[in-house]
Amino acid sequence: MARSDTDEARSLVRHIEEAFAQRAYPGDANLVEDVGDEEEEILRDMAGKHWRDLSAKFLRLHEDALCFLSPEGFRFFLPGYLIASIVDPSGADIIPENLFVVLFPPREEQADKAGMWHTWWEDRVNGLTEEERRAIRSWLEYMIDYSDPTVLSEEGIRFWGLTQEGEG
């Protein structure tokens, strides 16, 4: 588990906060794309909230929300999940592994014939600014050695330009 009380952790939190500072709330009507039970829960619990105000405990209760948010909602709430996993690793619990899943491109064996999962991922990642991407890459570098290796994919490591401990 990553340590939250280090200079590196505090610096990373500041980097994420600064990178996403200009990201505007997408509006309640743009938080989700579909309407189902999960999306209704997200709207009920997350509408009108800012990512800076959400605790690790709250985000842990909504650990799968990033999968149901619209691309705009995903990009808006993403920094809250990133920061929660740094400042409260035990409260965040499995959030880091979930983040690796949604931030890494789908594995070849996951992509269906229509490429729906790849399109979902591209819709979210392609709308990130360069500064937001740098902050995410820094988070990934920070967390990679503490994460479940089964969630890491070669596709993701290549996409984000990461190296794992012991690699060049």
Please explain how this structure is put together.
The chain is an all-alpha fold and 168 residues long. The chain has one domain. It is 56% helix and 0% strand. It has 10 helices and no strands. It has helices at 7-19, 37-46, 56-61, 65-68, 71-87, 89-92, 95-103, 116-125, 130-143, 154-160. The radius of gyration is 15 Å and the shape is globular. The mean pLDDT is 89.
What can be said about the biggest beta sheet? none
Distinct helical segment count: 10
Shape: globular
What string, H for helix and E for strand, traces the elements in order? HHHHHHHHHH
**CA-atom Rg in angstroms:** 15 Å
Low-pLDDT ranges: none
On the 0-100 scale, what is the average pLDDT? Answer: 89
